[in-house]
Amino acid sequence: ARRRGKAKEKARKDAIREEAAAAARVALEAEQALLQERTAREGEARAAQEAKREAKKEALEAASEAVAWAIEAAAAHVHAAQEAVRTQMRERRKLARRSAQGEKA
């Protein structure tokens, strides 16, 4: 009877150990699943951040190009205005010469 009692006790302890091991396996699997999910989310966040950085970089390049075009256009406008002033001054000098020659005659 005593041996049977010890065998029962051993069987009960073994069953408890198996249940504990099974519970530990389930907990470990759940923890691994959470870790994988977090890793995936962090990867997505990193990818989104990289895309945002790339978009900012492209926007800055486009803005820089637009500024360069604006500067070029302004320079061309200034050049045209200077040319117009030169032409106007030439015309005034011609008229002044003609008018001076007319007074002499």
How does this structure look, described?
The radius of gyration is 45 Å and the shape is rod-shaped. The protein contains one helix and no strands. With 105 residues, the protein is mainly α. 0% of the residues are buried. It starts with a helix and ends with a helix. The longest helix is centred in the middle third of the chain and has 103 residues, at 2-104.
Comma- or semicolon-separated keywords:
mainly alpha; single chain; 1 helix; 105 residues
Poorly predicted regions: none
Element order: H for helix, E for strand: H
> Into which percentage range does the β-strand content fall?
under 5%
Count of runs of 4 or more consecutive helical residues: 1
Helix content: over 70%
In quaternary terms, these chains amount to single chain
Name the structural class. mainly alpha
Strand tally is: 0
Summarize the structure.
This protein has one helix spanning 2-104. It is mostly helical and 105 residues long.
List the SSEs and their pairings.
Layout: H1 2-104
